[in-house]
Amino acid sequence: MIPWLIGLAVAGALWFAIYGHLTEFADAVIAALGLARGTAIGEAVHFFFYDTPKVLLLLSGIVFLMGIIQTFFSPERTRALLSGKRVGVGNVLAASLGIVTPFCSCSAVPLFIGFLSAGVPLGVTFSFLISAPMVNEVALVLLFGLFGWKVAALYLGLGLAVAIVAGLVIGKLAMERYLEDWVQRILTGTAPEFAGERLTWVDRFRAGWRHVREIVGKVWPYIIAGIAIGAAIHGYVPEDFMASIMGRDAPWWSLPLAVLIGVPMYTNAAGIIPVVEALIGKGAALGTVLAFMMSVIALSLPEMIILRKVLKVPLIAAFAGVVACGILLVGYVFNLVLG
């Protein structure tokens, strides 16, 4: 027991030390490469070396904790607590949790995987995955400052509704069969489990570490590939082009087009806010800009690449389709209300 506690204390201190200096690390990398912030290549490289360790650290830490939690609550018990009428409550709670967690889409994936490994129903986990990046406190503050509390509240309410309804729809579709086989084994209880009352803390720590080895070992190449694609795109945001097709007098199809343009990009809400401000300043319609922002942070291509290790293509397509419909609804409502 003592060696485990010492090891965990050292690992925890090292985790927080690394996580707290990711910006400095990325700055040092681009300085060593002779690059500069503000240039396309500099921003892309900085983004990659900041986000890659960030997501891997989050994944390892969350999966370790979820592995320990699972020793107290078996998948069957967790599903029972969130089944039937409780599923709707679970969707609301998961979406609300997503609002207060400042994660971008790829950073939310680790907790999404952790929920699945703990036996939380698929639809509930999707409510969190959608809400975490889509409803962001930075965007709320921006909207409040620019347009007042009514617009900010409308954004919050619509985003929360999209996350809840989308999770409920995906849950009703019963698409667990489209989870990858290794995830299905976790959900069906065929993965190794423990009886919580018979375990020592050393057993629980070992269970958490085993989760890290199994899950992180499977998804890390997809994480790196997804972030690399996002970083390459991150440095080349075509603001002028998008502003020209997102104006207040643009045709109806400009909003779906803005969503499609946003999907290949990847950044968090804080990173996309300057782009949003620039687009609005150039006369773009608020609803169209919000739809673009939501597609960037909730339907990013790198996120889909990472999720591909966990989900099969039909489930990814259903997720993207449901969320895209919700985003379009938000955009059209805002354009109608503020048009």
- Structural class per helix/strand content? mainly alpha
* N-to-C CA distance: 64 Å
User: Could you tell me the number of beta strands?
Assistant: 0
The H/E string reads HHHHHHHHHHHHHHHHH
| Shape call | globular
Provide the domain count.
Answer: 1
CA-based gyration radius? 21 Å
Low-confidence stretches: 190-196
Residue share in helix: over 70%
How many strands, which pairing sense, and closed or not: the largest β-sheet? none
- How many DSSP helices? 17
Mean pLDDT: 76
Q: Into which percentage range does the β-strand content fall?
A: under 5%
Structure write-up:
With 339 residues, this protein is mostly helical. It has one domain (2-338). It is 76% helix and 0% strand. The chain has 17 helices and no strands. The protein has helices spanning 2-19, 22-32, 40-70, 75-81, 86-100, 105-117, 122-134, 137-147, 149-172, 181-187, 201-234, 239-245, 254-262, 269-281, 286-298, 301-307, 313-338. Helix 3 (40-70) packs antiparallel against helix 11 (201-234). Mean pLDDT is 76; it is low at 190-196.
Topology diagram in text:
Elements: H1 2-19, H2 22-32, H3 40-70, H4 75-81, H5 86-100, H6 105-117, H7 122-134, H8 137-147, H9 149-172, H10 181-187, H11 201-234, H12 239-245, H13 254-262, H14 269-281, H15 286-298, H16 301-307, H17 313-338
Fill in the keyword field for this structure.
0% strand; 17 helices; globular; 339 residues; mainly alpha
Summarize the structure.
This protein has 339 residues and is mostly helical. The chain contains 17 helices and no strands.
